Amino acid sequence: MKLRSAAVFFLIFLLSAGAFCGDLRIVLNSASLTSVTVRANDEFAVFVPGVFIPLTDTYRFTVKGGGIIVNGTECSGPVTVQPPTKEDFLRLDLSKGQEHIYRGALEVSKNGNLLRVVNVVNIEEYLLGVLPCEMSTGYPVEALKAQAVAARTWSVANMNRHGKEGCNLCDGTHCQAYKGVNIESPDTSLAVWSTTGKVLLHGGKIASAMYCADCGGESQDYRLISQTAPEYLKGGVEEPAEVPHILWSHRVALSEASAKLIAAKLIDTPLTDVSLAEKTKGGRVNALSLITETGITLVRCDRFRTALGTYNLKTNLFTVALEGDDLVFTGKGSGHGAGMGQIGCKYLAGKMGMSHDKILLFYYPGVTLGQLEP
Ligand SMILES: [Zn+2]
Prior knowledge:
Helices cover 20% and strands 33% of the residues. By secondary structure, it is α+β, with helices and mostly antiparallel strands. A hairpin with a 2-residue loop joins β19 (285-292) and β20 (295-300). Bound molecules: zinc ion (ZN).
């Protein structure tokens, strides 16, 4: 256990990250539709270059030919929609009665035959709609604060993820799940506001604060997954033995596994057995041998998990056994296993009384705490 070493490194450097401060552009994948409606509690304006759209409290956008129709008026877009006042929120109707509420502004543009909606929102307000998606609101407050800092850091470090689309991040799990005001809760909002601007730095630059649901007791060496992974993600951070990990098992018939693996082009003929071919120092599976009627094929674990479903095989820390005509996988942990494990984070905050600063320095050894420019 390396709590002691975390304490040694418990030095807070209130450096200016200098990397980013302000608004993020979040492309709302959930809003790729042929029509959307934006409402507010009062009349408000939409800004369309060269076109006058009468003030109202509801705007309906549809796609037509080369442009967008806004309440019956055609324009080329993009159309910027600002709330009536800074305190108001915009309500985006995604049809079927689903109404998503957003802070900040919305920008509607045409993307092929669909509309694309981008939420332009301050990073702190964005995090209010991220945190409840990424960590249970019932977690101890210091765990929620650690998550807020990790999510803020991750957001800044990954700002160019959707650069080709003219955006920073998306609202799906590809980036960080973001559901706007609908999902906000008092505990997670408090964690965001009470850590405003706080980020993790390494060598004076924004760190890469990877996190996962449960690292299973020891963090994974992320350098095995990404050759550009930094030193503080080299893994080997051991959580206290008492952390109640996610334990899972998955039973699948050989015939069903065969069909999935053949569909994924990992094997050509039916499977008869599977064995673990290569493990990391920490016991994680790197590669498996797929034994078929015609031979043995070696496959990387990530491809194998993707083929069988990462919901079924939650992480690469598992064993496998053949029971009759079934394969039975038994595993511990969930997610990629690198950086902060949220289950462990909950334990360190709730049972060991650790502050969010100490938790972060435990999981990311060698980083320092910094502050985005106000
Ligand atoms: Zn994304």
